[in-house]
Design a protein that fits this description.
Number of domains: 3
Largest sheet: 2 strands, antiparallel
Mean pLDDT: 85
Number of helices: 11
Strand content: under 5%
Strand order of the largest sheet: 1-2
């Protein structure tokens, strides 16, 4: 795939993440929807057209280029040894999580009790672990893929599970910017698969918005946690009531 084609594909994904359709683009550009579809099919855009579409998403052209750069293939998981090195030092882990959340060097040393020297040392370690590229002037370039995941049941996932159980769930979720929804019922295998697909899609939407907002000042962003869970489950107090096959 050429770079131009890849950028146009990034544009299509960005429009989808913003909930925009070809019809919305057509209205913005005062063109027919059929012409818009042909433009995307042929991947032939002038820079002015690209800027017009970016403006519809409240983006600049450079933001689209950055999205394309971030979508390129990178590491999707760390090794066990890499995760163990991160978990041994809470402050190193904090810096790793911060850069994954698109905080800059200035954001980290300004808003947290990490000194300039200490932050550079930790960023150098992350560079050695190939999680980032540490560029001149302490600029940070992430090397992890958009679908990056911690190792299943690995050191960091177990650490966060403890934090979720001890902190995240100990809330009534009644304050601003918080919500807790819980449903249970009987579903067929087909319906369960639909729900699994929807949770994967919602998780992707979360990360798309996370990347989109990365260019905003830190004061305009909020540390947010979203937990999605779906599994066979029955309320514990009901389990003794279940009749087993040898009781029938």
């Amino acid at each position: 795939m050429t770079q131009t084609a890849a950028v146009i594909d990034t544009l299509k994904h960005a429009l989808k993440s913003h909930g925009l359709t070809y019809a919305d683009v057509a209205r913005e550009l005062r063109m027919s929807e059929a012409n818009i579809k042909r433009m995307f099919a042929s991947r032939r855009f002038t820079l002015m057209r690209l800027e017009d579409i970016c403006r519809l998403m409240h983006m600049e052209l450079i933001d689209l280029i950055n999205l394309h750069e971030e979508s390129r293939q990178r590491i999707t998981r760390l090794s066990l040894e890499q995760e163990e090195e991160l978990i041994r030092d809470a402050r190193l882990l904090f810096v790793a999580v911060s850069v994954r959340n698109r905080l800059s060097f200035s954001d980290i040393i300004t808003h947290y009790t990490i000194s300039r020297t200490e932050c550079i040392r930790y960023l150098a370690k992350l560079d050695r672990l190939k999680i980032i590229d540490l560029l001149p002037d302490n600029r940070i370039k992430l090397r992890i893929d958009e679908n990056f995941r911690w190792l299943p049941n690995g050191p960091i996932e177990r650490f966060f599970e403890t934090q979720i159980q001890n902190q995240f769930l100990k809330s009534d979720f009644t304050y601003a910017l918080a919500q807790r929804l819980f449903q249970f019922g009987l579903l067929s295998d087909a319906s369960i698969q639909i729900m699994l697909n929807k949770t994967e899609s919602l998780a992707k939407d979360f990360m798309d918005l996370h990347r989109q907002d990365a260019g905003l000042p830190l004061a305009q962003r909020h540390n947010m946690g979203m937990m999605l869970a779906l599994r066979p489950w029955e309320l514990g107090v009901f389990q003794p009531l279940r009749r087993h096959s040898d009781d029938i």
